[in-house]
Design a protein that fits this description.
With 490 residues, this protein is of the alpha/beta class. The protein has 19 helices and 19 strands.
Length: 490
């Protein structure tokens, strides 16, 4: 018997409703609805347009019904962001975007209260200004009335599920992105809440991925023309959904989830929290079956996306294919940036920030569009190599290849550069890893799939994988030394 299930998948720039059909051996996908996910800036604050996004979810449900219906749905989103719900069940304000500047300087500020090594030892999570803990610390310092009025906090997958069902849920993987979960107990970390003055009372009970939240509410069923559809708590953080879908038959594998963000890492039975992992600021994020995603968040294709948006806003009409051709036509290894430098996080004129970084670090300053894009591509590939080397040092495992998954699979130039820079083959695919991981957890919940290993075998059967071999190793190794010098001089 075929099983039909729906994945609602949100990225930082778009969302999709994708219907999955499982025939016992393969999962076939059909995109039934796609929509943009555009931040909205009002009086200097950057918000998510959450009510429009909820409307788009319902449009996805209606269109999936028109395709023959489905048995359940699961929602995955980006991490860290949340909505606050008051005592009457109402959303207090639109969720604020992680790129908003309200957390600027608060990481260092927090270290005066919880020393950095102690903080990392408690949570095992990478320090980033956008993390939930610093968003809440900002509210505590500057807008305490919001926390006083809040009865509960819901991360984005839980917020959308609440709108659909009326049930509040806090799933484990998305909770760990907050930097508020105890690395040892997998519950909320009392010490962080107490010392930063964040009210723990607003945090819900943490549930495991694969649990049923509730059926769609009567109102939603009537509006969308469906009935008896279960909402299942999948790995709510899109990265963990993607890791669930890595098509590896081996227990030990390295992956690069490539999209707006690049998430480079591996999956472990237990977290690694020590001086080496702290020094590289690596994260131990919770996954399905209480596995650990040991990974590094790296600014990814955002640099290309935002550069293109800036150029096109100023009168050009570059496609991504155009930018790749211009990059290929430019001379290699002329200059490098650190993709994770703080100036590359906010929206705006990324090309000028690239030039300024090169100017400040005494390098050749790129002028043409092709030179800037080539600089970004090569710098990303170099940062992947740096991260790959450090992950191998931490885990003491020598990985024979890198599985590239997600939307970046379509970027053949970056896949090839990643193989050449890291010196191992890249196996690229599946593109829809996040969706397939979402669907896999739903199939596990339905009892259609035995375990994650079987799910990964099914996904491998369902998707074509393209391999890229390393090339020009000596030139890349020599250029890597210059990259390290550039980022050390920033």
């Amino acid at each position: 018997m075929k099983k039909r299930i729906l994945a609602i998948d949100f990225g930082a720039s778009s969302g999709r409703a994708i219907l999955g059909t499982f025939d016992g051996e393969k999962i076939t996908l059909k995109e039934v609805h796609r929509f943009s996910n555009d931040p909205v800036t009002v009086n200097g604050t950057v918000y998510w347009d959450v009510l429009r996004l909820y409307h788009e979810i319902k449009q996805g449900i209606i269109k999936a019904k028109a395709e023959g219906g489905f048995d359940s749905l699961g929602i995955d989103t980006w991490g860290v962001d949340f909505g606050l719900i008051d005592s009457e069940g109402r959303l207090l304000e639109n969720p604020i975007h992680y790129r908003d500047l309200r957390t600027k300087g608060l990481v260092e500020d927090s270290f005066s209260i919880i020393p950095k090594d102690k903080f990392y030892g408690l949570t095992g999570i990478q320090f980033m200004e956008l993390n939930t803990v610093f968003q809440l610390y900002s509210l505590k310092k500057y807008r305490p009335h919001m926390l006083e009025r809040a009865e509960s906090l819901l991360f984005m997958p839980g917020l959308f599920a609440y709108m659909l069902t009326g049930e509040k849920a806090t799933e484990y993987s998305i909770a760990t992105t907050s930097q508020l979960v105890d690395i040892n107990t997998h519950g909320w970390c009392d010490e962080v809440f107490d010392k930063l003055g964040i009210p723990k009372r607003i945090m819900g009970k943490i549930s495991k991925p694969g649990e049923v939240i509730r059926d769609l509410s009567k109102e939603v069923c009537e509006e969308c023309g469906v009935e008896n559809v279960k909402v299942i708590s999948v790995c709510g953080h899109d990265t963990q959904s993607a890791i669930t879908a890595v098509p590896s038959a081996e227990k030990n594998f390295a992956f690069l989830s490539s999209g707006t963000w690049s998430l480079f890492g591996t999956e472990l039975d237990d977290p690694i929290v020590n001086e080496a992992s702290l020094a590289m600021n690596i994260t131990n994020e919770g996954g399905y079956g209480e596995k650990t995603g040991f990974l590094k968040n790296i600014i990814g294709l955002w640099l290309i996306q935002e550069s293109r948006r800036f150029w096109n806003k100023n009168g050009n009409d570059y496609s991504y294919a155009d930018l790749e051709k211009l990059a290929l036509a430019s001379e290699p290894f002329k200059c490098f940036i650190d993709p994770d430098a703080p100036e590359f996080v906010p929206m705006g004129n990324i090309p000028e920030r690239v030039r300024e970084f090169c100017r400040r670090t005494g390098q050749y300053v790129p002028e043409t569009v092709g030179e800037i894009i080539r600089c970004i591509y090569e710098s990303l590939a170099m940062k992947y190599r740096m991260t790959f080397d450090k992950i191998k040092d931490c885990t003491k495992i020598d990985y024979p290849c890198i599985h590239v998954i997600g939307g970046g699979v379509k970027d053949g130039l970056l896949c090839q550069m990643t193989a050449s820079s890291c010196g191992v083959p890249v196996k690229a695919g599946p593109i829809e890893a996040t969706v397939l991981g979402n669907l896999a957890v739903q199939l596990l919940a339905h009892g259609c799939v035995k375990d994650v290993a079987e799910a990964r075998r099914i996904i491998s059967n369902s998707e074509a994988i393209k391999e890229y071999a390393p090339d020009n190793a000596d030139a890349w190794s020599e250029a890597f030394k210059r990259f390290e010098k550039a980022i050390n001089n920033q």
